[in-house]
Design goal:
The protein is α/β, with parallel strands linked by helices. The chain is 41% helix and 19% strand.
């Protein structure tokens, strides 16, 4: 995939294309499907890339997107979706702010004959028509496999995500299956971290290293934010390159840590696949057709929903250049950002 543009360009494109048409105007017709998109937040950098991927696929499908951002406010999201529905879209893609409150949004859409594609966050109080999410079980599997590859009989600390988060729970189950229940390894710490807090992760890592006299082979860590905190403890004790450290999201700061040998690996979610698949599903449902891709079904509390699990890949020091060249979306990161200006080994 050709890499062009900058993060500013991506954000600008996402926001420009997310401009909302005048309320009450019927945009949908037989040739041009109209897809309403309700996004959860603009605070996290990745969501602009999701929208950009949706826009690229919409262009291929000859569809129009109407995008609004709820800024993590469930009441605002409900109001915005009512506005979107008044424009008579063919389908709605929604990243729910609140999994329970969003059930009312799904019900309202269905009452107006609009199918709903859930994106990344499930809805527990009404049944979605289709759902897309990262393959979180695969994330935990890749992180655990990396630890065992580095130290097959190692001593590990498991730094998990927020206990109330479905993503954290799915990753945790893989830790349990591959590490906690593995008689060949020793687990000296196994706890969730509320809010995925990097400071709490750092404090936990410092306590583990002190208690174990630095004799720890790895921190199997659920995401990149917490890995940033743990990396401070690793560097402070001169353990760089000696201790395994995993993450999730392939954030630029963590890719720098991987290049420096502080963090061992991260896991990348194919945002291009996720965004494109959502639009394909929405267009199909808007045409009263079943989406072509569905790898499983998940019950969030209101019945089984056809679900596509989005591919994830490990990112290590050996694959940083290929990640930049092939896997990262336009504007996500450059080789110079990872390795330093003029220092990139990528060709």
């Amino acid at each position: 995939m050709k890499k062009t543009g900058s993060i500013a360009g991506v954000l600008g494109t996402a926001l420009l294309m997310g401009a909302v048409a005048a309320p009450g105007v019927a945009l949908a017709d037989a040739k041009t499907p109209v897809i309403a998109v309700s996004m959860k937040t603009q605070v996290q950098r990745r969501w602009a890339f999701d929208v950009a991927a949706m826009e690229r696929e919409a262009k291929k499908q000859g569809a129009k997107l109407i995008v609004q951002w709820a800024n993590d406010d469930p009441a605002l999201q409900a109001s915005q979706v009512e506005n979107l529905l008044s424009q008579r879209p063919d389908a709605l893609i929604m990243v729910a702010v609140d999994s329970q409150a969003a059930g009312r949004i799904v019900k309202s859409a269905h009452e107006q004959g609009v199918p709903v594609v859930g994106y990344d966050i499930g809805v527990s109080t009404d049944k979605l028509d289709y759902f897309l999410m990262r393959n979180n079980a695969k994330v935990g599997e890749l992180q655990a496999q990396g630890a065992l590859k580095m130290a097959p009989h190692g001593t590990f600390a498991l730094i998990k995500g927020d206990p109330g988060n479905d993503v954290a729970q799915a990753i945790s189950k893989e830790y349990d299956a591959r590490l906690v229940n593995n008689k060949d390894v020793k687990i000296v710490f196994n706890q969730f971290v509320r809010g995925w807090d990097p400071k709490a992760a750092l404090a936990n890592a410092e306590n583990v290293l002190s208690a174990q006299n630095d004799k720890v082979d790895g921190f199997v860590t659920a995401n990149d934010g917490m890995a940033l905190g743990i990396a401070q403890a690793i560097k402070a004790r001169n353990l760089v390159g000696k201790v395994y450290l995993s993450g999730l999201d392939a954030d630029a700061a963590n890719l720098q840590l991987i290049a420096a040998g502080v963090q061992t690996m991260s896991v990348w979610t194919d945002l291009e696949e996720e965004g494109a698949s959502a639009v394909k599903a929405a267009v199909a449902l808007g045409r009263k057709q079943a989406p072509a891709i569905s790898s499983t079904s998940i019950d969030f509390g209101a019945g089984l929903v056809p679900t596509h699990l989005v591919n994830v890949i490990p990112v290590t020091k050996d694959t940083l250049c290929s990640f930049v060249a092939k896997d990262a979306p336009p504007g996500w990161v450059t080789a110079d950002q990872i390795f330093g200006a003029g220092k990139s080994p990528c060709h």
